Amino acid sequence: MKKFLLKIISIFLIIVSGFCSYYGYLGYQIYQDKIEERSLSERVDQLKSKEDYVTLNQISPIYKEAVLESEDRRFYQHGPVDYYGLARAMFTNLTTFSFKEGGSTITQQLAKNLCLSFEKDLSRKFAEVFIAKDLEDHYSKDEILEMYLNITYLGEGNYGIQAASQHYYHIDAIDLNKQQSEVLVKTLKRPSIYNPSKIN
User: Is 152 in contact with 113 (CB distance < 8 Å)?
Assistant: First the structure.
């Protein structure tokens, strides 16, 4: 019985390894194509040239903390991929037969926003990991968080926290209070349903 179980586990691991290798190869091709099309530094420079781009110290600390709590609690502790968070999300999804949890880090989400489409495809997910590694190799955690907060879609055509703060509340991002921050964090999840115009 023990030998049979070990054989089943071995076969399963071989299948998973082959599966990951195939999609990893496809993801690497997507990654290379995107970087050849336009380098990561060019994409970052374009983002930072936005008129309403704000630095990390120009964003409300309350909002920053709320985003980290909601999107990636261990952001400053893990690398481009949070394997613990990914395993937890997979376990939750398998036990609830749903896709309630994602497991993407803030760096992965920035990679997706900077370079990739939003289609749910495994090869694109692998490409996201390769780009996330490049980001963490060349930029600090604070720089990555800053870029993420400036690129996220917050409903009604607003990209980035400064644009959203001015659009919904007519204030700068640094002046967001706790209630406003909590609403905007919900907006990150479902911009068309939870944005401040819908809630108020």
Answer: yes
